Structure formats: C-alpha cells, structure tokens
Amino acid sequence: MAERDDGVADVLTAASLGDTDKLRWLTKELGVSLVVPDGEEGPVLRAVAGGHHDTVRFLLAAGVSVDEADADGRTALHRAARSGDLALVQILVSANCDIDARDSSGSTRCMRRSRASSDFDARNHAGIVPLHYESVRSLPMVAPVVEQRRQDELDALREAREAEEAANTARVRALLAPVDQKKKKKKKKPKTRR
User: Fold this and answer.
1) Residue 134 CB: number of other CB atoms within 10 A?
2) Radius of gyration over every alpha carbon of the chain, rounded to an integer in angstroms
C-alpha cells in the first residue's frame, strides 16, 4: 500500500493518542481535513476508543460527524457506552448523536429507557431486548443521560407547540377583528322604524 501524504494518517494517529494540539496544528497550519475517506475508522471513533474527552470535544466542534461508524456499524456512542465512560456518553449525547443507532447486527449499546419509547421491547436479530444489554453491559448509568435528552426533546416540542398555538390564536384573532368590529357597530346603532 502506498504511503499517504494527505495528512489523514496524522489525523488518525493524533486522534488515537488524544493529541488535540497536533490536530489543531494539522487543521489550522496545514489545512488537513479531519474527514477521512469512507471505509476508514474516523478520528472521533479513535478518540473515543482512547477515552480522550478533550479531543472528542475538539473534533465535534470542528464539524466531524458524531455518528461516524466503524465497519461493523458501531458508532462512538456504542464505544463510549461499552467502555462505561459516562462523561464521553454525555459529550456525545449533548452533541446530538443518534442514541438509537444500531450496528450491523441490529444491536444498540444505548437502548432507550424512556417510558414513551415505542421501541422498548425491540429485539435484535438474536432476540435480545434493551434491558438485557443494560444489565449485561452495565449500562444503567447511561439511562439517566438518555432520559434527560428525551425529556429535553419533549420539553422543546411542548414549548414549540405552545408557541405555535399562541401564534395561531393571534392570527385567528387578527382575522376576526374586522368581523368583531362590524358586530360592535351594528349593536351601537339603534334600529329605526319606518
């Protein structure tokens, strides 16, 4: 295989080692892209595998996909959850990763525990349910993070719905205002007999 000169190898090595300063230098001074070709394990996955929180934050802030996956479809969240690194899980969830991402076998390491979830009884190809993964993989610590994100999403939806309802009410009142004024004018005029 020919040696690469596009800087990708340097990016991947720096991410694996958690060398955020080198990543900054590569991107700022040399203009190296943090995006790797399809089929290669990306820098976020490598930084997560090494438990490098600051490097993960840097990569995400630089626009690298939080949902990049390895050849088996496992995302950074799969790796962080499997390693039991709650801080990394929180970083990834805060970056709006796909908490329902499934790997190539249909498994997810961070199954939904929200009561509102219609997928709580979902089974992968082997018939394993989310609760099994949480008990076997020691993931109960992930549930509060996921539940908080779900609650935040529900709160945001409720607030958006309330704002939309208020806007719709205001529009209807504005449309009805001329009709209401005509009704008031009719009430004020006394009827004259002929």
Assistant:
1) 19
2) 27
How far apart CA 194 and CA 185 sit, in angstroms, is 21
Domain map (residue ranges) of the chain: 100-185
Asked whether 44 and 60 are in contact (CB, 8 A), the reply is: yes
Name the token pair of 186: 């009719």
Using the CB atoms, write b or e for 57-96: b if 16+ within 10 Å: bbbbeeebbbebbbeeebbbbbbbbbeebeebbbbbbebe
pTM comes to 0.57
What is the Cα 129 distance to its own chain's centre? 22
pLDDT digit string (tens) for 49-96?
999 999 999 999 999 999 988 888 888 888 887 777 788 888 988 888
* Local structure of 69: helix, strand or coil: strand
CA distances from 25 to 19, 21, 72, 101 (A): 10, 6, 31, 32
